[in-house]
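ingest -> validate -> predict -> emit
validate: passed (alphabet ok, no gaps, 492 aa)
predict: started
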Amino acid sequence: MGEFVGAIDQGTTSTRFAVIDRSGSVVAMAQREHEQIYPQPGWVEHDAAEIWANTQVVVAEALQGAGLNPDSLMAVGITNQRETAVLWDRATGEPVAPAIVWQDTRTASLVREMGGQEGPSRFQHKTGLPLATYFAGPKVRWMLENDAGLAARAARGELAFGTVDSWLIWNLTGRHATDVTNASRTMLMDLETLQWDAELIAGIGVPEELLGEIVPSVGAVGRCTGVLEGVQLAGILGDQQAAMFGQAAFGSGEAKNTYGTGCFLLVNTGTRLVRSENGLLTTVAYQVGSGKPRYALEGSVAIAGAGVQWLRDNLGLISDASQIEALAKQEEDNGDVYFVPAFSGLFAPYWRDDARGILAGLTRYANKAHIARAVLESVAYQTRDVLDAMRADAGIALESLKVDGGMVANELLMQFQADILGVDVIKPVVTETTVLGAAYAAGLAVGYWQNTDALRGNWEEESRFTPQMDEATRDGLYASWKKAVTKSYGWA
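emit:
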């Protein structure tokens, strides 16, 4: 049974299903976008029922399109947008509230209140995370505090909470579970024990009755029903950890950067749990079966591709995201224009929820091409911010950076990224590393691939961008960026 492996990639803006073969090639793929709901400034919601409906549609489409059926798959994996909180009814399986998305900032005052005298670092030793609006636990607390009916039902054990992986696992297998990578983003799991922690549960204020079991990233979870009837669900990874897995960055010191809605740079620290002193997150990279977990340092940038969407949808400077490169190329440089995309505050390494987006350095000379360039350059500057923090924390000096995600098709951005970092930027042949990572985890669990060396053997370089900028120019641009960042503070 099963000559392929399947992977569900449930992202922030869309859901995809891919069928992967032994060489790591994508045999079939289908994708469907879901609605982004903005009820008021700073709020971002999804409809979990729509996400599940879309998941079933893309699985069926991809299989049918390739003339396959569930029996063609040896296993299936899930990768997902992390930190997005879903609350559902255990009896009916229906969501009881809109899902609150990772970008949502409605918990800002709640998070400040939780920190008390200790501030954002209150739970950081156990969780690896600063108290911030980004994480899932406080979102659930907010849901319960703002609906007395939900709070009562939660206390009676009638409701289930999970990140999106949990929601999909429940619908596919009937099991209430999440993996270590997703659990590490709730603020409710102890990084060392890999278990829900009583102190965290009490401090964040999420009833234990809401929580499922925590399982390894690589390992059998259960047989699917419905659209994937009979297929073993055997791999679960949060999307950034999945991209790391798909990039075969299994060695300590190996790093990858994913350029999607946000931007996420992870460096593998092996079995060493590195606690950040420089505004990064300590997170679980993955766990294979009952083996020791592998950890990572992560820098999360809230707005990357989302800045391009803003240029398209809110300003109308482009009609398609792919047009930004041509527009930006109309000018040789940024015209001293800097864009700080703090739409929902600033994430790593600043963690300023009082920051808001700004365009700085505008003169009569500035035009839309300069603004387009500034939007692209902001992604590269934010990556440099994170990489500098990683160097300081882990003493890891990167020799090159593996990149993936939708924005790596933009060669202007990739060249500027190499220039501003001063290291080579390397793009793999298969840039769909997130979905690949989920497939790799599932296939590894069932013996479709024998070991991580087999996965490493699949990785191939497609192109490489080498720094061409002199040091003085690089330092000057980056200093101006740092100045622009400080101008975004204290707005909210």
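The first helix runs from residue 48 to 65.
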